[in-house]
Amino acid sequence: MKTLYDKLWEAHVVRSEADGTSLLYIDRHLVHEVTSPQAFEGLRLAGRKPWRIGANLATPDHNVPTQDRDKGITDPVARLQVETLDKNCQEFGITEFEMDDIRQGIVHVVSPEEGATLPGMTLVCGDSHTATHGALGALAFGIGTSEVEHVLATQCLIQKKSKNMLIKLEGKLGQGVDAKDLVLAIIGEIGTAGGTGYAIEFAGEAIRDLSVEGRMTVCNMTIEAGARVGLVAADDTTIEYVKGRPYAPECETWDRAVEAWKDLHSDEGAQFDRVVTIDATQIQPQMTWGTSPEMVVPVTGRVPDPAQEPDPVKADGMRRALEYMGLEAGTPCSAIRPDVVFIGSCTNSRIEDLRDAAAVAKGRRVADTIKQALVVPGSGLVKQQAEEEGLDKIFIEAGFEWRDPGCSMCLAMNADRLEPGERCASTSNRNFEGRQGAGGRTHLVGPAMAAAAAVTGHFIDVRSL
Amino acid sequence: MDAFKKFTGIVAPLDRSNVDTDAIIPKQFLKSIKRTGFGPNLFDEWRYLDRGEPGIDCSGRPLNMDFVLNNARYQGAQVLLARDNFGCGSSREHAPWALEDYGFRVIIAPSFADIFFNNCFKNGLLPIVLQSEIMDKLFQMAVTDQALELTVDLEAQTISLPDGESISFEVGEFRKHCLLNGLDDIGLTLQHVDAIKSYEARQQQAAPWLFTQ
Hints:
The structure holds two protein chains of two kinds. Chain A is α/β, with parallel strands linked by helices. Chain A has 15 helices and 19 strands. A five-stranded parallel beta sheet of chain A has the order 5-4-3-6-7. Chain A has a five-stranded parallel beta sheet with strand order 17-16-15-18-19. By secondary structure, chain B is α/β, with parallel strands linked by helices. Helix content of chain B is 31%, strand content 14%. Chain B has eight helices and seven strands. Chain B has helices at residues 21-24, 44-47, 94-102, 114-121, 132-144, 173-181, 185-189, 193-206, and strands at 7-13, 79-81, 106-109, 126-129, 149-153, 158-160, 166-168. In chain B, a hairpin with a 4-residue loop joins strand 5 (149-153) and strand 6 (158-160). The chains are: A alpha/beta, B alpha/beta. At the A-B interface, helix 2, helix 3, helix 5, helix 10 and helix 11 of A face helix 4, helix 7 and helix 8 of B.
């Protein structure tokens, strides 16, 4: 009896050392401009070539501008980095969706969209949000630049197996509660280091009910709970999602693949090192109040009081967070007013996210107190589809800015960033100090909640609109 | 990568938990296409009072004197004491590059984030996990003693205190071997070219869809 993680791991072990250190074969490697230049340079210096060129897929995302693309990248340092990716991909023959390609976008949106992420694969990328791809029953995790070079050169990684954790979501999510609320609630429950050392499989009715895009939102934030790997068993929803995508197998190979994917679940009675059961019916729309994703409360609640926290190190962290966030304990969440709204990032920039946000924005206006409300689609193809559905018009009429695809204000490497002290309702994944710009204050929420905050000028339970 | 040798170094205490890699090296410095030169921007937002940008000379920037690394007694520190979940968040290897470039060789914490922990070993940086009670004692000593110095011996897996007390620590056999010998992972893996090729050949038969381009 094996867990899904056990199965994926064992199917990819090339060899093992006595202490369990294993050489793991990597099927797919995603490349972007920030964590790859030093790896390509390393290859060149050692006179090495990529082991299997076709396993790699590249696109620039972190640094790209989200407006005035025809003017190119004005920041010379960022431009050099994107040009370096272009040059490296050309030199080594790696497929790249360049900035002017309709398929360009955030790597974690682009790869599943292209069918380049398949169930049963091992997939890595020099980015911690690579866990996203686990939503399709793939073993996917983030790596550093040395490992990027290692995968390029050998198609393998030296790894030690993680422990198994099962997070079981029992029952159905309530009306108006989405995948983001679900994963934020999980992080609130197990903590930002709760998953350290584990591969987490998400299971249960509430997970099965999610679309593949919703599952991606959940797996995406696994790293925010400390685990490198997040997984959802492959099922009919997964297979339906993959079918017909450009990189997906066809004809006979498709049939064989589907047959193999049917085994991509944990066996009945498989042993997990830790099991967490959560009642999904009780999950409310969530928002973070502090500077770690675990600092999260239902939007109907209040900012917690460090005086009530028994652990002194934790209480100290809470005090520091309150100070940084410019908040007082006991403040109702609905009294918190953002200056900026950001809808985008590898967590929440897919078509369903944009539909959810547009449904709230439709027929409403962004509040006068909001300085800027950005909608940044996850890829050129998401943008195109949204425009076909008329979502861009809904956003623009409501007073949102409709941008080009990229990571944008999630990490503020491009021009989209918060000014010191500015408060943001953000659909991204990290509320760390300075993450969205030095001194910026981030509140993480789902796309409908972000749109609701934009149109009312304060955080609000989207169900009450 | 240089081989990791026994050394005695000054200890700097960073007394907060969940220190993320965005704090260790903020995003604007990630635009560099080099792997060196990040040391002056280590903990940039905590260390300086102004906003740091790539390419700016840091020697004239206003320092935040409340930040631990700006305290005179910790100058030249090679050992960093930290709290739980050090290095969480982004996978950026720029974080260990910045710590190493600054001069750190060892980070001691009750727990580390997985990706950061792994990245350290690729850069000659040794992350050591010690129990919270021992950590509390070390923090106490680093604050009260005049520039606490520790001796770290990876071969023996011990940390020696000035009073002669010795604390042992765990480290994976393979990682220890690589650090002690300054071994390049890629070189090691390429010793197994045949194993990789035969695995690949088997998989191409068993699961050809994994090889679509």
